Amino acid sequence: xxxxxxxxxxxxxxxxxxxxxxxxxxxxxxxxxxxxxxxxxxxxxxxxxxxxxxxxxxxxxxxxxxxxxxxxxxxxxxxxxxxxxxxxxxxxxxxxxxxxxxxxxxxxxxxxxxxxxxxxxxxxxxxxxxxxxxxxxxxxxxxxxxxxxxxxxxxxxxxxxxxxxxxxxxxxxxxxxxxxxxxxxxxxxxxxxxxxxxxxxxxxxxxxxxxxxxxxxxxxxxxxxxxxxxxxxxxxxxxxxxxxxxxxxxxxxxxxxxxxxxxxxxxxxxxxxxxxxxxxxxxxxxxxxxxxxxxxxxxxxxxxxxxxxxxxxxxxxxxxxxxxxxxxxxxxxxxxxxxxxxxxxxxxxxxxxxxxxxxxxxxxxxxxxxxxxxxxxxxxxxxxxxxxxxxxxxxxxxxxxxxxxxxxxxxxxxxxxxxxxxxxxxxxxxxxxxxxxxxxxxxxxxxxxxxxxxxxxxxxxxxxxxxxxxxxxxxxxxxxxxxxxxxxxxxxxxxxxxxxxxxxxxxxxxxxxxxxxxxxxxxxxxxxxxxxxxxxxxxx
Length: 540
Hints:
mainly alpha; two-stranded parallel ribbon; disordered N terminus; disordered C terminus
């Protein structure tokens, strides 16, 4: 094998080395801490440290783990029940504004988790726009967290459902209807078998996001309904029970790895080329169809758009106060920190993601090695940011609160978006274009610069857009690894939420509007002019 053939595959080494240093080594340190706690831990905390299996003997921690699984399951069920009908309507009918609706399905992927949480509180929290007129008191109940999870994940299921329904064979569906099958029977016998695996993969991701997410659980769950991720943060930051936090973190990582393995298995099974005989969309005719379209749009409006509009409305209720919050010195410092940390992470994520995408593409022909290379791209999505940040603190104490460690953690969460979009774009390129350039005497480097890179540039920019949105909205890593003077917009929002008074609540909404606007501007700027591609994961 010559240098030209070896070099693309060797590009996988930087991402693998990065994952080994930032993910694998910290998780091994977590495992060691859970199995061999420091001798002075009992004297420091006043109680003996728990072992890995001892987590299940502790009633409090056992409840946190079981509740984390339960709320993820409940949220996934609601998301599926609401998302499948909406996806079917969007996939089967065309109407004015349909493309705009499909485009807006990307919105929750861009909005930071704390902004989403504040939007849910603005509608359903104390004195919420909807909760108060309806006489509902959802504070200190599990339903706020479930509503937040549905908001954050509904669009993922709808997007996956629309794409999967687009691969249904039109000839098979027409044959079933010709043989007298009712619309429901045709769906159950023809459409459902074709879409169940892609939907199962999407639901697996939804469960993983709900289980491992921290931002929504921290704001909406409260003390009573906090998840295991929030409990890990509490054990580390407030109770100094590092061994107990390590044992709990290992269980969350184990469950996450199991879910990721299920998703990877499903992804291999539902990977298939696009069909040529896709089912064409139909015009909206008849009162039943109009009612179905109106219900689908209303569901998206209520769950995915209304919380964001509520945040905007709350922030704009006091424009002078809004401007005062935005121009405050602490806000300007937080804005500068957010921008510079995200920019540094985006540069590193772009390089690592490009290396990974090129390597995955060139390893795709290898049987077992190609499978492992593909699986390595999912590693950053498997582990929770809380577990990674905690492991980094334990493994690299001398680098605690260092800029390099913080940017590395941001990069870990961002670069897989770039890698996946680049790899997918490379796989879709016609191979004869590069071959033609080589035939005309172009070197491998010249082929890459003049042919390959311009063709994958839209996908690269789309991956960078999601990477930037992920870095801008990152919250859990900032809580663990930043200094007090490195406050970001997300941590500043959380600080205001922790203080009493209406002024602090309005400041939190004002900062949320600023952060949401910043994320949307950066995303649109990077994403303008690219072709549509759907994300497989998102920030925590």
